[in-house]
Structures are given as structure tokens and as C-alpha cells.
Amino acid sequence: MPQANRRMKDIEVPGTRQFANRVDEFPDAVDLTLGQPDFETPQPIKNAAIEAINTKSMKYSHNTGLFELRETISQYYREKYEAEYDPNGEVLVTVGGSEGIDAILRAILDPGDEVLIPAPTYLGYEPIVELSGGVTKFVDMTETDFIATPELIESNITDRTKAIILNYPTNPTGVTYTKPQMDALVEVFRQHDIFIITDEIYAENTLEGEHISLSSYTDIKEKVLVVNGLSKSHAMTGWRIGYVVGDKTIMEDITAVHLYNTICAAIPSQYAAIEALKNQRHVPEEMNASYIERRDYIYRRLIDMGLEVSRPTGAFYIFPSIRKYEDDSFKFATDLLESVQLAVVPGRSFSGYGEGHIRLSFACSMEELTEAADRLEKYINMLEEK
Ligand SMILES: Cc1ncc(COP(=O)(O)O)c(C=O)c1O
């Protein structure tokens, strides 16, 4: 029998998926596992795609994306972060942020190259690092309030380190970084010849203060590769539009991987993205108003239940500790689902450093969130009585 490559043995089905599949067995379950906005894509964005289908050419675009979209992204970065990216050669439109991450890692990694990933972390990075021949080195953030500190990063960089992947606002913890915190990290980055891949897909879902993009540190532009997209900001997960911005010197190689992989992102989706970034910039703020209300509610409920939890300042996740009751987050989540029909993601899905926690998504209605909190409380009361 022909076999898949040896690396596939280590690639697991993500914990989020495993749980989503189990949730289907419980029709009355309240599902807080989802990693996408509960809002629908705004109508003007849909209309822009429909209009484009009817009036524009639907042939391949330039490999890097429609010029108008690249120009719009470039302008967005100039206006928002005072960062200059040439639409010709420094902006690449991808099939979601996911494809951007894949193209970057495949373009930069040689076999054995180490990639630092502060953890707990989004589960989309490690498999791609490994499939690209790289070696994942998780950096433990459990003792630093889930923040990647300069000391932590510095002490993990070796001669073999090729890149670090940052993600903030962070999935699964909801952590964001202040300007002084980011300044201090950048000081470390200035000292080392490594790529800084920064997944800022939740940038527009910053719930407090301002998002400090690594693109705004223009003196390290040659090292920084920013991944972003429309999935979370404009509730466009199904459109599959993301992008990478970075320095010309490396973007050519990343574009080559993208070219052989996808040729270009889907054209109707590219037109939708132009509308989103040109005329619908107010959308994330409107969604954030709901996320803030829900965050405040669920945070208060978890505190009242006596759970240890930090207050998220970005994204739409909250990551309480369940160690008081159980170390094994898979066991806890399975039991929670079976006994009170509440679905959450076990923290271990976000690397071993997420163990002892569960991730609750508050990208759901207030009614669902209230019901979920009631069920969790009921379950915890059951554990207390045991
Ligand atoms: C941190 C992070 N990065 C990237 C992605 C993938 O996003 P996209 O839909 O743009 O591929 C996700 C999706 O959940 C995510 O949480």
C-alpha cells in the first residue's frame, strides 16, 4: 500500500474539530466551540460580490490579487498603522489568513529550522511548521499571564531559530499587548536575524485600547511578515480572503509558493474584500460593541462561579482555568458535554501549555451565552457536591 509521508503521522485532527463532531451527537447542546463571528457578512459586501459577478471579468487575477484590492490594503496599512507597503510586491492576497501562514512557512523554512511559538496558541501553526520540515519550539506563557515577554523570547532564541509566530489579540486567551509591552519585544527582535510572523487576524477585534501592529515598527520591516484577513473583522470566514504584507525582499518567495498552490484568491471574494476595506470599516466596531457586552457578562459569571480567569481584551474567547476540578481538559470538556450538554474546547487543543483550561467562544447570542453559563454553573455545582 502506498503511504502518506512520514510527517503525517504526527498531524492530528484539531481538538476543535473533534469536539464539533461530538457536539453533533447532542442536538440540545449549547455550542461555544466556534471560532467565527456569529454575525452574517454585511449585505453591502455581499452586494459588491454579486455586482462584480454580473459586471466584471471572472478570469484569474494577478497572482498577488486584484490591483485595486492590493492598493486598498496598502492604503489601510498607511492610514491605520503608518506603515508603507507597496501594492506591487509587498501585498499578497491569499485564501484566508491560513493560506498566508502556509505560504510564509513553506517559503522560509529549511529542514531543521526552529520556529518559536508562544503557547497556548492557535492550533493552525504547528502542523504547517512540521510539514514544512521545521521544528516547533513552544514558548511557555503560562507563568506570564499568557504574554510573550522579552525575557521569555530572548531565552528561547538559538542559532537554529528561523522565525517566531506571534498572534494577538490571541486565540485562545484573548490577550492583547500594550505599546510598552510591544516596544520591549521589538527591542529583542532588533537584536536577532529571525522572521517575525505576526498573525493579526483579530486586530479589528481589539476590545480595549488600540491594536499595536508590528507593521508600525518600520525599522524592522525586513523581518516582519504580517498575516491578516477579513474572516473575523467582517464576518467573512466563508469567503476565504486573507493577506500577507511584508518587505519586497521576501514577499517574492512567498508569492511563488502561493502561485503554485492557488494561482490567485477567488475573484468574487476579492471584490467583496475591496468593499469591506474601503466602505465598511465601521463594521468591526459595531460587532465589538456586542462582543464587549458578552465578554463582560461571561467574565462576571465565571468569576462568580469561583473560576480563575483573565479578562480578555481582544478576540472573542475566554480561557478559564478548570484545574480546581480537573487537570485533564479533554476529560472535563467531554464530561461537561455529556452531563449538561455544553460544548467548549479543551485547552490542550492549544498545545500542552493550554492544559487545565477550557476555551469558551462568546461569538454567540446573549441567550446562548446565558444558557451556557447556567449549564456550566450547574455542572460546577455538581462537582462541588461530589
Ligand atoms: C489566530 C488565527 N489565525 C488564523 C485563522 C484562520 O483564519 P482564516 O479564516 O483567515 O484562514 C484563525 C481562525 O480561527 C485564527 O484563530
UniProtKB/TrEMBL annotation:
InterPro entries linked: Aminotransferase_I/II_large, AspAT/PAT-like, NHTrfase_class1_PyrdxlP-BS, PyrdxlP-dep_Trfase, PyrdxlP-dep_Trfase_major, PyrdxlP-dep_Trfase_small
Molecular function via GO: pyridoxal phosphate binding; transaminase activity
Top-rank lineage group of the source organism: Bacteria
Domain Aminotransferase class I/classII large span(s) in chain numbering: 28-376
Cofactor(s) the protein needs: pyridoxal 5'-phosphate
CDD domains, sorted: AAT_like
Example GO biological process: amino acid metabolic process
PROSITE patterns from the UniProt entry: AA_TRANSFER_CLASS_1
Statement: the UniProt record of this protein carries the keyword Nuclease: no
EC annotation from Swiss-Prot or TrEMBL: 2.6.1.-
Keywords: Aminotransferase, Pyridoxal phosphate, Transferase
Annotated family: Belongs to the class-I pyridoxal-phosphate-dependent aminotransferase family.
Record protein name field: Aminotransferase
